[in-house]
Design goal:
Elements (H helix, E strand, L loop, with lengths): L1 H5 L1 H30 L5 E5 L5 E5 L5 E6 L4 E6 L5 E2 L7 H4 E3 L4 E4 L15 E4 L4 E4 L1 E2 L17 H4 L3 E5 L4 E5 L10 E5 L2 H10 L5 E2 L9 E2 L5 E4 L2 E4 L5 E3 L13 E4 L5 E5 L3 E6 L2 E7 L3 E5 L2
Parallel strand pairs: 10-13, 11-14
Antiparallel strand pairs: 1-23, 2-3, 3-4, 4-5, 6-7, 7-8, 8-9, 11-12, 12-13, 15-16, 16-17, 17-18, 19-20, 20-23, 21-22
Amino acid sequence: MNKLKDNKPLRYILGIVFFILLCCNLPSLALCSAQDIFRPPNTEVLVSACKRPGARGVPDGEVLFVREVRAGKMYLLDLRTSEKRKLPNDPLLLEKGIFLSSDLVWLEGSTTRPGGPGYHPHYILDLTDGKRYELLDLDTLPRLTGGKFDPKNYSYIQSAQYIYIHHSKNTLVALSSDFHTNPNGRVVYSDSTEELVQLTRNFNMEYKIIDLGLYHAEVSSPTNKYVVRNDGIYFSGTNFSVVNREYTGGRFMGGYFKSWYYDESAVVVQGAGYYLFSFPGVSSIFYIPSPILKLNLP
């Protein structure tokens, strides 16, 4: 400490660095706080913009995956209790994780076949035990002459208890009730979304939508009372609008919606944030994030 005290040039340099950092952070902190205060109408703050949060929805609306970039934290936010649940330390969760439910995450695998460069399989990550369970990829099973899919392999899907479809990825995940101990009870299959949906209809099976992006599918509320589209929220099976762009401060739902709220009283939304300064040919500076918000339904 005495060496630093006596070293005036070093103290001067450190003082300048501290001043620069302070000047850089003050506008950002002030403006992100303003984002929390001057938010869209009919909303409540779930996670402050000052934490630079990102959100990923879970289909049942019970929890929300949250990443606080500023603090380097990831957790599940319980939307009933506001409790923050710890997540397993799995390196694929952030980049490849797609939530099937509050407890199960599909870790998306490679599009290449086994043995190809960079190949890695699909997994189910069980958040309750922190373990991965490798999925049987039906696309890798032997095919008929001419490369056609062997229809007998549909039996893996027919025996499943839970079916999930991701529209933009054209992928179906099927799980049996004993998938933890039954390697053939956890499968993944790719085809056009239209074919996947028709397949479930042929088997008289229900499926859950896990693509919450709104660009390829409507997303129903937990009890199917409402449906959210990229232009608003409607009563299911109708064109009667519950929430439109006027109610959300002029914003469409597409790119804004993150998740349903468990009791259907609200949806979770988040804006994209913005840069305070942008110059042609120069990197933008002072990124101002948006808070994660609860948008209450009327």
